[in-house]
Fold:
Amino acid sequence: MCGCTREVTRRAHFHLREAPDYVSFMMQASIPHIDPAQARAKEAQLVQWLRAQPSVLLGFSGGVDSAYLGCVAVDAMGPERVLAVIGRSPSYPAEQWATARNVAERFGLPVLELDTYEMSDPNYLANPTNRCFFCKTELWTRLDALAQERGIAVIIDGTNADDRSDYRPGAQAAREHGVRSPLAELGITKAEIRELSRERGIPTWAQPSSPCLSSRIPYGTAITSERLRQVEIAERALRELGVVGDLRVRHHGDLARIELSRDELSAWLIPAHRARIREAVRTAGFARVAIDLRGFRSGSLNVLGGVRPA
Amino acid sequence: MSAATLERALGESGVGGTVEARGPLAILTLPHDHVIDETLRATLVALAPAHGFTHIALEITDDADDRAALHRH
Structure:
């Protein structure tokens, strides 16, 4: 066994009671070894970067990355120079909103909410493979206007170093609006963000990634409020059933395809447990329910839509 | 993508059941109490791409679905 594996195993067991979800991440997702000293050095650079800005407006979702960035920003710059903005729309899960509010309150992060209207954009509703571009264009246009109105110098987001290698059409919208991504610019990876968040006591450190609800709808299938609502209800029902770790309910019309983390998969494939999954998901209005046998894959619909190889 | 050839391959591997194709997604239906252990799961996942599928999912059925399937045959 190499040293890296030992380190991951030891760390995972150490935090077992504290955050069982995280064990799944560390054990199954082949997350690379994290050098805590290197991560802290990058954080020091991040603090310097933030302090060099007169003021920042953060696109804040309450996800792992933007929660970490918001907490570091308010710590480094003080609350008077930071504003975190939550963009609310039907594709933004209510649970994520609650997390965002909780983190903001706990860490003294000034927060503002505004509605976004991507659901009024036919380009977005048609759900093309660059759907995220239209959503992010709406978001950054509104945040850009807000930053100008309030005299805030720089708009930032939580894009991390790993995101740069993924298919992310939303990044183009960010570039067009001059949004800076300090986590990515300083080479801070998702694993490092989790570790640094844990050290700071930010509750999102063990939280599964949770992109917007539209990411559960295959490209070419129209985005509707009803479909988004179905996905949200089904995922909440599965959480209440006891599903932990990564989870996606993919919307295939009358059929819901459930992606579970690899560690969860074998337990939920037991016939009696399968029946409970079906019962839970059907409350969201799906006639048919299926469990993906490969389990959770980030960007699974990119593969299904031919945007990314399998 | 071919549901028929995947179905045949499954049969040859000793797994019954039916396959429905929705583009590159294969939806597999087995009797509701069919046990899927790790070996079988891995076999199914490995078989799907050979027949053009990027995804394979097990539809969750119940007793009534099994009876209905029996009547259809």
